[in-house]
Amino acid sequence: MKKSRLNPREKIIHTQFTHYGRNAKEWLRKCALLLPSIQKNDIWKKLGFQSLYHYAAAVAGMSRHQAELALWTVRKIQDKPALLSLAQTKGIHAVRPIANVATRETDEFWAEKASAMSKSTLECYVREFRQEFQEGKSCPGTTLQSAKLPSSAPKPVESLPKNQPSESLTLTLPIPLARRLDRLRKRADFEALITQFLDTIEAQEEASQPAAIESNSRPIPPAIRTFALNRTGSRCAFPNCNQRYHQLHHTQRYALEKVHDPGRLVPLCREHNELAHLGLIENEEYVPERWHLRKKADQRSAKWWIDQKVQERRAAAIGTQTLNGS
């Protein structure tokens, strides 16, 4: 829906509504945090209510779902002071995604993440964190190879190194193609054949890759944009993510170099794009297959510094937009 500017009287009404809305959210957060004490002391029963949920609905306008969520979350974080403090300022929903993974030892670590991330990005980070660090799926000690794509010359079929970390992949294919692939899968050199096929495709991509362009204009040139999106079918490039892309991400940061480089331009979903700009993706300078999650951003890097400046400007712009109602 197209926006239009508000007149002075409408701005006053909007400002009042926003102010009251923020206050309402603040009081509801406080009620949610008090609800476990209401339950523990049977206050609802002493006041003659049929249940705790009737009490919460009548007194605070809380739904049964909101009440259950508050009780569960506070029970999980009651021995974690940093998360409790964050819940008081940002609300129960801000800490719910980490209530099951945080411990007393990691209380401050997760509070820091929750305070910096949106709810959906925090959920994404928790999901990746469990796979990367708790399930032992990543190989942070692996020696990195060059990110440059292979040459177009055919490679001999070779056996792959033994005992490499493995990962399951589910594909939905037309029946004839699925059966052909299944037959090929039974061959002893299946992995090497797949590797050779992928190397050939990637070499073809490299041959058709547009040249990088230096430009003071932030919009990405159409040819470079199309090339970057075609590599993933407009899906997020982060490993194991199949969401539609939200942003074409300059891994070297456009603000630092003023360059649109198709070799360093990757489609990312909203959540992985936010993680990248929080400095929580390791090996960004390599191809996405080699990306890993970081526990902490490298605050000495120029990329982290420029990301902070961009986020500050965007936050200021959003604040101004809210005040102006336009």
Explain this structure.
By secondary structure, the protein is mostly helical. Helices cover 53% and strands 5% of the residues. Among the domains are: 8-116, no CATH class; 203-316, no CATH class. It has a two-stranded antiparallel ribbon with strand order 1-3. A two-stranded antiparallel ribbon has the order 2-4. A two-stranded antiparallel sheet has the order 5-6. The model is unreliable at 138-160 (pLDDT under 50).
List key phrases describing it.
mainly alpha; two-stranded antiparallel sheet; 14 helices; 326 residues; 6 strands
Could you describe the largest sheet, including whether it forms a barrel? Answer: 2 strands, antiparallel
SS class: mainly alpha
Unreliable parts: 138-160
Q: Give the integer mean of the pLDDT values.
A: 84
What is the tally of beta strands? 6
Helix-residue proportion: 40-55%
Quote the beta fraction.
under 5%
Radius of gyration: 25 Å
Order of helices and strands: HHHHHHHHHHEHEHEEHEEH
Please work out how many helical segments DSSP would assign: 14
The strand line-up of the biggest sheet is: 1-3
Beginning-to-end CA distance, first to last residue: 13 Å
Give the overall silhouette.
globular
Gist of the model:
This protein has helices at 8-40, 43-46, 52-60, 64-77, 81-90, 92-95, 107-116, 119-134, 175-185, 190-208, 222-230, 254-257, 270-277, 302-324; strands spanning 213-214, 247-250, 259-260, 265-268, 281-282, 292-293. By secondary structure, it is mainly alpha-helical. A two-stranded antiparallel sheet has the order 1-3. A two-stranded antiparallel ribbon has the order 2-4.
